[in-house]
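The authors assume throughout that readers already know how a fold can be written as discrete tokens. Each protein is reduced to its one-letter sequence and a matching series of backbone shape codes. I therefore recommend that a typical entry be quoted early in the introduction. For illustration, here is how one protein appears when written out as sequence plus structure tokens:
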Amino acid sequence: MEVLEKHMINDIILTSLQKSINYQDYRKLVAQLVEEHSTTGNEKTEALVNYTMLSDRRMKRWDKTVKISDEIKAKVESFSKKVTWLVITESWCGDAAHIMPVINKVAELNDHIDYKIVMRDENDALMNQFLTNGGKAIPKLIMIDNETNTVVNTFGPRPTVATNLVNAYKAEHGQLTLEFKEDLQRWYNKDKGQSTIEDLVNLLF
């Protein structure tokens, strides 16, 4: 990865932010892509189009069903700094479909958290500064302090618990199988966004 000076990274982030959309517009975009039998990203394969349809269904479900405890609500509401959560994603991403609605639920609790979204393939320079183990894994959340325009922290592409499951499986089997990916989807369904919520709260405090 090319390591850039801080001011250059800030310029890249600012450029991407100018192209960003909010969560409501992202949801409209994905719904529109489903109607058009299309997908975001440089590749428009049938498989990715189908994943976008699946993502739309998953996000609809999570938009309705994600629950946040009163204790965590109170904690998030007490956060006083102004930050931006800039998330890099694509409509076909399976992990993002489970995570993006949860980020929205947490961000909605505090006006100081500005949730913005950009597409990975349209923001290559940005993605290259926030790789995961050398790869362009998404979704990737970049937390920016609005006063100083500095990157405070990052989250993604998966909650910590899921990342540990993936790493353990890769260490034992070398790569992720279709069976494991299906198991991971079941894990997300069982977890109901709670691990993601925990990680997001840890970003703030």
Summary: The chain has a mean pLDDT of 96. Residues 6-204 form a domain with the Glutaredoxin fold (CATH 3.40.30.10).
